[in-house]
Amino acid sequence: EVQLVESGGGLVQPGRSLRLSCAASGPKFKDYATHWVRQKPGRGLEWVAGIFWEGGGTGYADSVKGRFTISRDKAQNSLYLQMNSLRVDDTAFYYCIRDDLPGGAGYWGQGTLVTVSS
Amino acid sequence: DVVLTQSPLSLPVTLGQPASISCRTSQSPEHLNWFHQRPGQVPRRLIYKVSDRDSGVPDRFSGSGSGTDFALHISRVEAEDVGVYYCMQGTHWPYTFGQGTKLEIK
After folding, report:
1. C-alpha angle B35/B33/B80, rounded to 5°?
2. In chain B, what residues touch A98 (CB-CB under 8 Å)?
3. What span, in angstroms and rounded, lies between the C-alpha atoms of A95 and A111?
4. DSSP string for residues in A93-104
């Protein structure tokens, strides 16, 4: 069974940076995508960024484009999200998600909370 | 971006009664999934590719639809079904979610 464990969340001031990590374990992954999805307090789900595990192609939500960078380390089986120029509006639980089939988003981590506040 | 519009947004249901949630999309997705999120928990996928049920999901849950109109059906609502249901499309990037439908017991 695939397991995803996020880390790196915390309290950060507006304008500062934070790097989230997601450690993956379990069966070897196919070349499907892995993503970050966030959920602001009391709100719905919002896709933030995604990356194809083998090819490395990426995509970003307009709300984070130019500020966030998604990357992966295949050898470490880890996913990252570098978040720069953080805003109060970026406050959310951030989930690491793995596709179990194209477009499936079948595997979810427990999430890590990012709070942006002065 | 593909827009997903769910209805209703609030769904009070009597135990044992059926319930349905609609999800309309602005483009046709092959990969239309349904998730359930209980309060304080991580979303869990119930249905993938419109109508395939995930392992361990009770057979009272079913998905249907085609084109731009999809639905999640619960044949007999149980107490553990409370929470928020989301549809999600994974065919077009960015992946997008519906607003969520909150199911509660009357």
Report:
1. 25
2. none
3. 4
4. EEEEEE-SSTT-
Among chain B residues, the shortest Cα distance to A50 is held by B94
B13 to chain A nearest CA, in Å? 21
Digit-coded pLDDT (tens) for A14-60:
999 999 999 998 877 677 899 999 999 999 999 999 999 989 999 99
In the block, tokens 């999901």 appear at B57
- Residue from the list B30, B43, B91 with its beta carbon closest to the beta carbon of A45: B43
By CB atoms closer than 10 A (0-12, 13-18, 19+), residue B88 is buried
As a residue count, chain B comes to 106
Residues β-bridged to residue A93: A39, A113
Contact status, residue A50 vs residue A35, Cβ threshold 8 Å: yes
Q: CA B41 to CA A101: how far, in whole Å?
A: 23
B8-24 pLDDT, tens digit each: 999 999 999 999 999 99
Contact at 8 Å (CB) between A88 and A116?
Answer: yes
Chain segment B25-84, per-residue pLDDT in tens: 999 999 999 999 999 999 999 999 999 999 999 999 999 999 999 999 999 999 999 999
CA B97, CA A97: separation in Å to the nearest integer? 14
